[in-house]
Amino acid sequence: MNDFWFYIKLGFDHVLDFGAYDHILFLAALAIPFTFKDWKKVIILATIFTIAHCSSLALSVYGVLSVDVGLIEFLIPVTIALTALINVYKAFKKEKTNRMQFIGWATAFFGLIHGFGFSNYFNMLMAEEEEKLLPLLGFATGIEFSQVAIILSVLFLGYLFLNLVRVKRRRFVIFTSVLIVLITIPMLMETFPS
Q1: Which range is least confidently modeled, 12-26, 147-161, 164-178?
Q2: pLDDT exceeds cutoff 70 at 97
Q3: For the segment 20-53, what is each residue's pLDDT rounded down to a tens digit?
Q4: Residue 165 CA to chain centroid, in angstroms?
């Protein structure tokens, strides 16, 4: 049971690591277009992300699939920038359709990419472990808890800006999404495949 808690903490720390803030940026970009009344939708998206993230880890841990780390390190900021740019596109669009199915599939695909980004380190941790399923479940639990914390924080900040500061929702979504893209640009340049 101690090992299970170790992996829960590892999953929690993995997402909330401010030194590697890619998860935080991605989750912020994912949550920005939503409000508290949509919290269930955002939690579902976070769960889809967790399942996909841990699925790619499982594929790697069990030796089914391995992906070039350099390519993944570049694709992670691409997923962040794309998510933020989709927010901007939707904010400028006249027709207000909410395509949760598209967002769900995109989130799952991006989750697979993010999972492969952590697979080398996770594989080193799992090298001595005979039982791999329990650590994966612990890690997934830690990821889910931390993602819910981030999403609720983003929704709360959105609430403050939209209701107390009285920023228009469209402006809030555009400004914060563009800010995320600007933060992501150096990550893209650093990891661009040579």
Answers
A1: 12-26
A2: no
A3: 788 899 999 999 999 989 989 999 999 999 899 8
A4: 27
Overall number of domains in the chain: 1
Q: Quote the domain boundaries for residue 163.
A: 2-14+22-191
User: Do 134 and 3 meet the contact criterion of CB atoms below 8 Å apart?
Assistant: yes
Question: How far is Cα of residue 168 from the mean position of the Cα atoms in its chain?
Answer: 25
